[in-house]
Amino acid sequence: MIVGDWRSARVVEVAPATSTARVLHVEVPGWPGSDPGQHVDIRLTAEDGYQAVRSYSLGSYGSAPTIELAVDEIPDGEVSPYLVRDVLPGDELEVKGPLGGYFVWRPGGAQPVQLIAGGSGIVPLMAMARARTDATADVPFRLLYSVRTPQDAIYREELGNGIAAGGVDVTWAYTRSAPPEWQGRVGRVDKAALATSVWPADRMPVVYVCGPTGFVEHVADTLVELGHDARRVKTERFGGA
């Protein structure tokens, strides 16, 4: 059912992603389809009529009526704790979308693409990586994914197998602790890490950066310092300014 811009939806599957995150598959009848990188609004209504709305990026893309969300819990949040800890298959939600037309990637271009994610910022970039893999496109794709520890990585198994095998060059950055076999540095993504892990500015890549506000602003500013055209650096952030 559609009421205004809101569609009634039903949770069909839930799966743990990390200790604080969950992947939800949600069936949305009449779903019009989405481009890689878009998001939706989710609305919850309490028994007393109180409503809370939050935006969540789509890990899926295309016209299939079941969409995928990967939600990381914000302890003081009004929506994410319910989606991560309480929602069950069969539960109903309200969905508005797809939303957003700036932070999207569509197959067909030839320019190198650089994806840079911090934490749950991987979700819309995962949709882009999946689209690139599914399209068997030959456009060069790189992904730099920064997480605190290996256990905090959403989609870790898929990134290490299907996405990497599909032609996306995946580089990991660990800010607190790394796997035992790790031989790289551990720490914040800095200028040196970006210089060695992303496409150089002279390749004129299109760059997509998603994550917490501080992470996104730091990465975007550093990329410009490295010579990247700010107009080719697309950002999406969450959290306070």
TrEMBL record:
This is Ferredoxin reductase. The keyword Calcium does not apply. Its cofactor is FAD. Keywords: 2Fe-2S, Iron, Iron-sulfur, Metal-binding. The keyword Ribonucleoprotein does not apply. Transmembrane segments: none annotated. Residues 4-105 form the FAD-binding FR-type domain. InterPro entries: Cbr1-like_FAD-bd_dom, FAD-bd_FR_type, Flavoprot_Pyr_Nucl_cyt_Rdtase, FNR_nucleotide-bd, MRET, OxRdtase_FAD/NAD-bd, Riboflavin_synthase-like_b-brl. PROSITE patterns: FAD_FR. The lineage of its organism: Bacteria, Bacillati, Actinomycetota, Actinomycetes, Micrococcales. Pfam families: FAD_binding_6, NAD_binding_1.
